[in-house]
Amino acid sequence: MRHGDKINNLGRTQSHRKALLSNLASQLIAHKRIVTTHAKAKSLRTYVEPLITKSKENTTHQRRIVFSYLQDKEAVAELFDVISPKIAARPGGYTRILKLGTRVGDNAELAMIELVDFNDIYGKGKGEAKEPAKRTRRSGGKKKAAGESAAAEASTEKAAAPAAKAAE
After folding, report:
1. Is the dihedral of CA 27, 20, 77, 82 positive or negative?
2. b vs e for 9-34, b when ≥16 Cβ sit within 10 Å of the residue's Cβ?
């Protein structure tokens, strides 16, 4: 029985699976999108997204942690220097998986996994590094909107008052 066993073993031993995901993650970081099987893409997403989150904090400690997963200096440098500034404002969901159909040889379901901010077709703008959105639990929008509408009404009343005096 596999109660509570949520990991997809991908038909490999732990060491082989670790090496596979490390290599796939390095290639995803280097090329920004890769084509693989759907099962591997789903496993890769859970492997690489925490690493991308760690790259938001550019410290020696975080670089060493990410290097322990990737074992590739160039991939770590690319992640921290190129990818991290582009995803600074994104709170999560750094990858997208698109199904591509089946492979001719063995009928395996193929998928393309890509970094969301590096797709020019779906992306809003190139190289936009926005400030992280301020997250608050208080609702201050109603007071602000009411203040603006009251100010707008006061300005229209002031404009109407001189016109009324001129008509007299």
Report:
1. positive
2. eeeeeeeebeebbbebbbbbbeebeb
Tokens of 77: 């440098």
Are the C-beta atoms of 99 and 54 separated by less than 8 Å?
no
Across the chain, which has 168 residues, the per-10-residue mean pLDDT values are 91 97 97 97 97 96 97 96 94 95 96 92 60 69 59 57 53
The candidate with the shortest Cα–Cα distance to 75, out of 88, 63, 91, is 63
pTM of the model: 0.72
The token duo for 55 is 């790259």
- Is 41:111 a contact under the CB 8 Å cutoff? yes
Alpha carbon of 19 to those of 16, 33, 74, 161: distances in Å?
A: 5, 19, 17, 78
Give how far the C-alpha of residue 94 lies from the chain's centroid of Cα atoms, to the nearest Å: 3
Q: Which two tokens stand for residue 127?
A: 């190289």
CB 41 within 8 A of CB 97: yes
Collect all residues with Cβ–Cβ distance below 8 Å to 5 and sequence separation of at least 6: none
Nearest of 113, 146, 133 to residue 34 by alpha carbon: 113
